[in-house]
Amino acid sequence: MIKKGDTIKVVTGKDKGKNAKVLKILGSKVLVEGINLYKKHQRAKQAGKKGQLVERAMPLHASNVALYCDKCKKGVRVGTNVDSNGKKMRICRSCKGNI
CB of 12 within 8 A of CB of 34? Predict the structure, then answer.
């Protein structure tokens, strides 16, 4: 239940332990700001210009990230709860606080 704009914590991989913001959801993958960066060699567009190295963020699988809880200060599992107005809220499974 990760959505665009959420803060996440990377659980596995080369960027394990980092916190970042979700930029885009791509099916079962998540594009995260500043995480899983790879270098791409870009050709020169015009004659006489130089090519360059560009760093791009590549998507991570959603199972490799966890939603970050500000109260617990860690990556947590997410549950749902219905408030008195009938609106569904996402809650942290450890501290029971709203995310």
Answer: no
